[in-house]
DNA sequence: AATCAAACATGGATGCTATCGACGAGAGAA
DNA sequence: TTCTCTCGTCGATAGCATCCATGTTTGATT
């Protein structure tokens, strides 16, 4: 991880489909050299993968919300975490310090979806919902 | 946006550098056809861009935290939001309903960085920090 | 039902890209 | 020095993205 690797990562973060040749021109390296560096960044675990930035609103998302969850029994926190984080609407699910033990970020296409999730999540604890107004 | 577009997006979400030819084989379309669909998804705003999934721990991140911020005067919420979200350590910054008006997610390389951010953020309001224990 | 236009897919051609292997330069250790 | 490891370049090759011309399908209109 030197300065060149950082610049390569920066460029891939801006556009993960950028060609190694173009990146190479920018960092003054040949395309194979960039390719080898990227491969190493993958192998060494710096880069986990390449993904999409989506416009969720375009896909029908109408509501985004944080849901604090006060788990009934602390012994089930881990179980709850490992299940909830794979739910469709869930973007993030973090175990946190403080009163509430889990913080869930989820996107919904309707309030009905939100209600459904709240009902489903109630088996683990007491949820407190906070709607995202803007970001 | 039909079923094929959805499958293309699914595949790109798994690996944004996947070739259109490979995707085409999977959705039973030629490479140019996939390319045109992707281009349209970009132009119509469904796809915002292509990005990296990074292993932040490898980059030195030691602490992740949610910081609730109770803004002093409600008139400055928007200002605070639009500044804080561009800070280096900040991953997300959302205006939310409820007592605290802003919820900030940030990654830190040290507790010192966390403290610095807390001091800096105090100009806008009263922060409450909750450390992420696991995800 | 017939017709037309728009949207969409295909296939071939072309220039780029990714990646391999061979090779050489430079850094650091024995 | 000499060995070795890392990291670069270059040339070759196979595969890829994209353009254009050509069909095909869809579905809306008359």
From TrEMBL, chains A, B:
Gene Ontology CC terms, in alphabetical order: cytosol
InterPro entries hit by this protein: AsnC-type_HTH_dom, Dimeric_a/b-barrel, Tscrpt_reg_AsnC-like, Tscrpt_reg_AsnC/Lrp_C, WH-like_DNA-bd_sf, WH_DNA-bd_sf
UniProt-listed SUPFAM superfamilies: Dimeric alpha+beta barrel (SSF54909), Winged helix' DNA-binding domain (SSF46785)
Record keywords: DNA-binding, Transcription, Transcription regulation
Residues of the HTH asnC-type domain: 1-62
GO biological process annotation, one example: response to amino acid
Any one GO molecular-function label of the UniProt entry: sequence-specific DNA binding
PANTHER family per record: HTH-TYPE TRANSCRIPTIONAL REGULATOR LRPC, LEUCINE-RESPONSIVE REGULATORY PROTEIN
Protein's name according to its UniProt entry: AsnC family transcriptional regulator
Organism: Winogradskyella epiphytica
Lineage: Bacteria, Pseudomonadati, Bacteroidota, Flavobacteriia, Flavobacteriales
């Amino acid at each position: 991880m030197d300065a060149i690797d950082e610049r390569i990562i920066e460029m891939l973060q801006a556009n993960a489909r950028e060609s190694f040749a173009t990146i190479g021109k920018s960092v003054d390296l040949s395309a194979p050299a960039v390719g080898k560096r990227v491969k190493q960044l993958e192998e060494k675990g710096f880069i986990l993968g390449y993904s999409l930035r989506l416009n969720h609103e375009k896909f029908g998302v109408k509501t985004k919300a944080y849901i604090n969850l006060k788990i009934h029994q602390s012994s089930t926190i881990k179980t709850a975490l490992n299940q909830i984080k794979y739910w469709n609407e869930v973007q993030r699910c973090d175990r946190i310090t403080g009163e509430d033990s889990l913080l869930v970020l989820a996107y919904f296409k309707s309030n009905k979806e939100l209600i459904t999730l709240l009902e489903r999540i109630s088996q683990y604890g007491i949820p407190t919902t906070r709607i995202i107004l803007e970001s």
